[in-house]
Amino acid sequence: MIRSLMVLAALLACCAIPVLADEARYGDAAVEAVGFSLPGNLTDGSRTAVASAGGPAQVTLSRAGGIAGVYIEFDTIPQPWTAADPLTGDSLSCGEKGFLHEYVDLAALGDGLPESLVLDFPAGADIGELYVFSEGELPGWVQVWQPPCERADLLLVSSHADDEQLFFAGVLPYYAVERGLNVQVAYLVQYFEGGYADHRRTHEQLDGLWTVGVRNYPVMPEFPDLYAESKDRDTALAQAVSVYEAAGYTYEDFVDYLTWCIRRFRPLVVVSHDLDGEYGHGAHVLCADALGEALDRAADPAQDPDTAEEFGAWQVEKTYLHLYPENQIVMDWDTPLDSLGGRTPFQVTQEGFACHESQHWTWFYRWIYGTSTVPIQRAADIGSYSPCLYGLYDTQVGPDTAGGDFFEHVETYAQRAEAERLAEEARRAEAERLAQEQAEAEWLAEEARQTEAERLAQEQAARRRLAAGLAAGALIAAACAVLAVHRVQRRRR
Question: What domains can be seen in the chain, in order of their start residue?
């Protein structure tokens, strides 16, 4: 019963957005839209009810006291659009990063908050929901995404939206929140078109990542979600390759994509699927198999010259695969952490999977939550496809000795930056010490030169005085001699 209540609470947390948004949307803000089909869908509280722009479209927002922010949940990846203050003419360029969920902070628009705002969208814009916020109002569910990592400490390659919350349960909240690392998630498939297209899954994907603490926007490739499954790994791989070839994609396309991910994000550690695809899912098998090829290719500058020229070759230091039988480690996702509000990484991930409502009919729901009579409360309670078990598939830094940490023997980018900062400080301190020593040596040398000059001057003065004294003595002696001669001469006379 307790477990059921926890799951219900997590579900309500993910489903609370429309309730909270009504206050922001309808308070005292007016929304007028032109150029959209079914413009009422912009503010109806339902992501699945979409307002589409057949041509250029516009939304005008008005609110006494000013508009601090706008949050839009697009139904398809947006093209660039603008937000402008019609009174001042100041505008912001938006949508350039292609975020499906985009928050626009209007403090960047100019001095003061606009009481009127005009949003201009190109043809083809599809919007599920639009929210307007006043100053100081930014609920925690609003996703203010950062761009994908420039350099990722950890790259998690997940085949589908929800795999990152299931078979990799615990990884994201632990490393993104508790450890505060640069964590990048890259998926193998997308849900916008082709295959098993379902736009709900991409919204759930972003909601789940946000819930577990990921803040860098994920990578979603062009590959559609297609299905193949077999308990035999070779069969599952062959079937997956076959269904994708029928859709116009080759095995090499997946290797190229994962090579791009590795070179683009320069991860120190990569984590991905079981070689057998956990329960035999062909896409999981394809992901792990293509990743093995991509690891070698990414490290070889002669391979894939376009990405090598753009990003350079990259050698991943450690790669872990789920359930890999060699060099195995057991991860602890069941220790409560202050950074997670006293919850465990696994419990936070359970909340992340609660966002994937479209998948709750599957056996995954029982796998991660258990049943009302036998609830799953710890990651260690999961026997099949344990989210705690990984193997070190590839390493450039030697085998693990302690275990239980993907970053054993690996310094994170922050640690490397700190080490470089300390080294630079040491270099500056050494340079300052040498400069000071040189200055002191030059000062001592100058002082010695001055002392020597003074000594020589004193010696020269002494010699001059001595010479003068001798000369005076000689003159006196000569004078005395003359006087003596003079006296003698006088006596003779």
Answer: 20-133 (2.60.120.260), 154-410 (3.40.50.10320)
